[in-house]
Design brief:
Blueprint: E1 6-12, E2 18-24, E3 27-31, E4 33-35, E5 37-38, H1 48-53, E6 59-61, H2 63-68, H3 72-77, H4 80-85, E7 91-93, H5 97-102, E8 107-109, E9 114-117, E10 124-127, H6 129-139, E11 143-145, H7 157-178, E12 187-192, H8 198-211, E13 215-218, H9 227-234, E14 247-249, H10 255-263, E15 268-270, H11 273-279, E16 282-285, E17 288-291, H12 311-315, H13 318-326, H14 330-356, H15 360-370
Parallel strand pairs: 4-15, 5-6, 6-7, 7-11, 11-12, 12-13, 13-14, 14-15
Antiparallel strand pairs: 1-2, 2-3, 8-9, 9-10, 16-17
Helix pairs in contact: 6-7, 7-8, 10-15, 11-14, 13-14, 14-15
Amino acid sequence: MSVRFAFELLHADPSGARRGRVTTPRGLIETPAFMPVGTAATVKAMDPEDVRATGAAILLANTYHLFLRPGHETVARLGGLHAFMRWDGPILTDSGGYQVFSLSSLRKITEEGVAFRSHLDGSARFLSPEIAIRVQERLDADILMQLDECPPYPAERDYLARSMELSLRWGARCKSARFADGEDGRALFGIMQGGMDPDLRRVSAAGLIDIGFDGYALGGLSVGEPKPLMAEVLSYAPALLPRDKPRYLMGVGKPEDLVMAVGHGVDMFDCVLPTRNARNGQLFTRRGAINVKTARFREDPLPPDPQCGCATCRRFSLAYLHHLFRSREILGYRLMTIHNLHYYQDLMADMRQAIAQDRFAAFRQEFHAARDGEPM
């Protein structure tokens, strides 16, 4: 790969929000950016061209699921993820750690790594920092994530401290494994842990910076903690990370949370929320979320969001989407997913523009004011 990974901070708004640009071997990513989640090498209900049409520049694929099925070596033999799923833009792969650690009854953590049983067939598997890197390299990802332990909420401070230190040691091993054969233009991100404890977050950030990564993620949020507590962590944690590297908030995806996090200097996001909620009949709009399954939309001739330019809003009514959802028609899932992903990309574009114009604080007020009307 001739083009190397790079991050350029283009502008910082007085509020603390950042406008940037990530360069990868397979294209540019304007930040703040939202990554649709393609768990098993597919964004559910979507063709890659559908995803591209929403404005997405980068996807996330799930290392754990691809490790188990069809297997990273199979994907490698078929040309890597980009050829396999026909997506020519950048791909970020998570390390598989979150999925493994969520299988609390099926895994055992040691210094070496984590032994677990596949949720598919119960077979014994093992994931170490070195294996996690190898799997992501064979998948041919553009941005790789270190293997870490994502502790639950709530958790005792002693456990959080041990877990955070283990993640730091694993991060160092991931970096060593990543560059054992020389650099190739891909990026490796470290992951900050520490639960809701400010001191542990500071220790984690300092340790990651000492190791040195291409970018830094904030892990251990959106794991069941109260919203005010997540907001408190985001009020200080992003600023602990280097200013000249991208900052990635993992798994947080409600629109209001994205706006809040951007205001604290976060650059990248991923979440299953827009796609999962679409399949459950919930659409995100500038006026707030609406549920198409409710009877009030049975004869509504308007599009989900009259201000939206997505293919769904240009062509179809809420009444039709209501009918499709009630009838469990596959087309309904696709059309609603198209809209939700388009909404998220529009939200990112609007925030980028507001930051460039030094009006992010005003944008945030307008965003919340538009959503304070009658519940949909």
